[in-house]
Amino acid sequence: MTASYLFASARTPFGRFGGALAGVRPDDLAATALRGVLDRAPDLDPAETGVGGRIDDVVWGCANQAGEDNRNVGRMAVLLAGLPTSVPATTVNRLCGSSLDAAIIASRAVETGDAEIVVAGGVESMTRAPWVLPKPDRAFPAGNATAVSTTLGWRLVNARMPKEWTASLGECNEQLAERFAISRERQDAFAARSHALAARAWADGFYDDLVVPVDGVDPAALARDESIRDGSTPERLAGLTPSFRTPEAGGTITAGNASPLNDGAAALLIGSEAVAGRIGRAPLARIAGRGAHALDPQEFGFAPVEAANAALARAGIGWDDVAAVELNEAFAVQSLACVDAWKVDPEIVNAKGGAIAIGHPLGASGARILGTLAARLVQSGGRWGVAAICIGVGQALAVVLENVSPGVRS
Q1: Which of 31, 45, 102, 405 could form a disulfide with 120 if both were Cys (CB 3.0 to 4.6 A apart)?
Q2: Residue ranges of the chain with pLDDT lower than 70?
Q3: 62, 172, 338, 390: which is the annotated catalytic residue?
Q4: For the whole model, what pTM was predicted?
């Protein structure tokens, strides 16, 4: 067994639903991120055919795959990015965790010796997710047909599923708020922090080297992630109406303290230590531990707790060793529940903003948080970091990175 390393990351700016990326197909977004991460390794030649110099595989995540992202969108990205047809690709679907799953699969391929260079990533256009019609049970039905949106959440639910499992994502997290007594005030404060930190990180140039422009989109219209709201404060967010329960019923989750609907793509370059000299780039971080966890579907927001604990155990470290955490902010309440359970310093969590501000294009978010985590470790000199993401229907994934860049603190 050899070690696997993260060499580079690249992503598009994340557009809001119906926003600046609404006119861009998901396969084109994927190609943009794929081409962007390969440009970070100037000596990597995608046309190389010799073992150890070629791109052995592309593993791509996507949660929807009901529209323009169908037919193995990872392979479509390879072709649209202008890579040789000899570069293979696959697409994986673990809903919100799809691109983190892609990175895990890529790292295992490297560690087992099946590959030396793999590109992992993911894409989602929630704007362009289609409506679908189920086929009728019999020919020529006389009644009307209902189109079902594939943008988010359950659709075409199997009647054999228990109703508590198929509750809306928001309702599931209202239950989490009740279970852990997490107040609306804490949620709004967490959300306002996400916006403030994301805006500051963009202003400070943190994302300049991580984000690539999208062809055909005016850079001025998408100069940064489109969902960031600089003026968000707990007081302003407190004025929003709960989205899933009425105030009288104790509703706490609003459009302001949950992640929005978004479009975007993100990519990662993963390889063995031996390829560093051949691609013109030193590794940033070692992929040191991985974890997956599952529980009752309605409790999905809390699943990152044990996924991260498992990843840390496999890396041989504990929470006291961790310098940075990137936790995908599906909802403020589930993020707070996880941070509380880990008993970590909240200041090391999402210090450059999180998905509530940056956005959550489902299939791209795992690669986004892993790339951000590596960049944070390099910037700070911290040695260990954790990326974790909750996944609808009761799952979560986590990855531990070890900073191997120059200047790392032991």
Answers
A1: 102
A2: 49-53, 410
A3: 390
A4: 0.97
